[in-house]
Amino acid sequence: MRTRNRSGFTLIELLIVIVIIGILVSMSIAGFGWWAETQDKKTAQSQVEALQLALEQYKSELGGFPKTDLLANSDDEEARAILLFRCLTGFLDRFGEDVDVDRRGKSFLPNKDNFVLGSREEGDLRLVTLSLEQMRGAQAPEVFLVDPWNNPYVYEFPRRDGHKGFLLFSKGPDGQASEFDSELTQTPKKEDMDIDNFPPSEPGKW
Questions:
Q1: What is the pLDDT of residue 7?
Q2: Would you state the pLDDT for residue 55?
Q3: Which of 141, 142, 122, 145 is nearest to 133 (CA)?
Q4: Does 3.90.70 match the CATH number of domain 44-185?
C-alpha cells in the first residue's frame, strides 16, 4: 500500500512560530520605547538651552530678565511659565506690563515650531497652536511652553533659593522636582525625583 506524504505545519510548530513572533514584537516595542524616551530627553535638553540663550539675549537688549516676583500668584508655576512666554514673544516687558502692539519687539524664541504650547482649561492641559496673527495680536495668549512630557518649563527670577541668575528647567519624565521657596544656606540633598531633571543641576544647584 502506498502512503501519501502530507506537507504542512504541526500544532507545535505553529506555537513555536507564534512565540518567536511575540518575542520579536516585544523587543521592537521595547526598543521603540527606549528610542522615544531618548529623543524626548534630547529635545528637553536642546529646548532648555535655546530658552537659556533667548533669556540672555532678552537681558542684553532689555536690561534684565522677566521678573516673576511681581506676579500676584508667583508661586504658580504655570503663571510664571505664561509670563516667560509672553515676555520672550514681546507681549509683556520684563516687569509684566503690556506692550502696545505698535511697540512690540521681536520674538526671542529661535523658532516657535520647535516648541509645544499648552494652556489650562478647567484643570485639563490642552496643547495649542498659534498663528503668526495670533502671536502678534492685540491680546496676549494664556499659553506656556511645555516640555516633551507636557509639563510647563519651570522659570523663576529672581531665584528664591538665593542663587544668582534665573531658574529654568524641565522636571523630566516623572514631572516631579524639589521646590525651594526660601534662600538656601547650603547645597540641598538631591532627591530621587530630581535625578531626571533637565538640566540635571536644577533646581538646587547640586
A1: 59
A2: 96
A3: 141
A4: no
Q: How far apart are CA 25 and CA 84, in angstroms?
A: 43
The sign of the CA dihedral 168, 169, 175, 181 is negative
pTM, rounded to two decimals: 0.79
Pick the more confident residue, 100 or 74: 74
* C-alpha–C-alpha distance, residues 143 and 86, integer Å: 8
Q: How far apart are CA 23 and CA 19, in angstroms?
A: 6
- Please classify residue 186 by burial: count the beta carbons closer than 10 Å to its beta carbon, then call 0-12 exposed, 13-18 middle and 19+ buried: exposed
CA 190 to chain centre: 21
Specify the amino acid at residue 84.
L
Domain range summary for the chain, segments of one domain joined by +: 44-185
Concatenated DSSP letters of 56-70: HHHHHHHSSPPPSTT
**In whole angstroms, what is the distance from residue 107 CA to residue 136 CA?**
10
Torsion of CA 82, 83, 84, 89, to 10 degrees: 90
- Can you say how many angstroms the Cα of residue 26 is from the centroid of all Cα atoms in its chain? 29
Q: Per-residue pLDDT averaged across 78-106, rounded?
A: 83
Measured between alpha carbons, how far is residue 32 from residues 27, 37, 106, 118, 172 in Å?
A: 9, 8, 39, 26, 19
> Could you tell me which of 50, 49, 55 has the C-alpha nearest to residue 68?
55
